[in-house]
Amino acid sequence: MFHQKTSQNAIAAVSRLTELFPSGAVESSKQIAESRNLPAPLVGKILTELSRGGLVTGSPGPGGGYRLARPPAEISLKDVVELFERESAGMCPYGPGWCGVKEPCPLHNSISEINQIGDDFLRNTNFAVFQNHSTQPPTNQKE
Predict the structure, then answer these.
(1) Per-residue pLDDT of the chain (143 residues; tens, 9 = 90+)
(2) Is residue 6 within 8 Å of 46, Cβ to Cβ?
């Protein structure tokens, strides 16, 4: 569904900030990275872009950190993904310049339906789904 790994990582970072939202707590990019097992420099860049997009706010200095700019229910997955992915006209298996120019390829309708389902999911799913969710990664225990 997500074409770029960066979108997945951005959703992970925002999901962490969603967990913190009720308490009003902030976390540094390093803390967010550690909580999601992501590289700190990458999370720093992601948070900069999320801030430019108006989804998070940051405060510098000791005691500073990041928080959501709006309640989680007001931020959709699509809001995040749009910051990191460009809209594409769809990947026609016949190559560029086919669908929309010539007769649609045999997969055109199916690909369009799948893209629409994915877009609807991203638009209709907000970050409130991450509230009250375990903040601890699952452990792999053998019996």
Answers:
(1) 445 889 999 999 999 999 999 999 999 999 999 999 999 999 999 999 999 999 999 988 888 899 999 999 999 999 999 999 876 555 677 777 777 777 888 888 888 898 889 889 999 999 998 887 655 555 544 44
(2) yes
Instruction: Give the three-class secondary structure for 67.
Output: strand
Which long-range contacts (C-beta less than 8 Å, at least 24 apart) are formed by 135-143? 135/16, 135/19, 135/35, 137/37
Global pTM?
Answer: 0.80
Around 139, how many Cα atoms within 13 Å sit in the side-chain half-sphere? 4
Distance, in Å, from the CA atom of 66 to the CA atom of 13, rounded to the nearest integer, reads 10
CB-CB neighbours of 22 under 10 Å: 11
The one-letter code for the residue type at 61 is G
Strand partners, 76: 126
What SS3 class is residue 42? helix
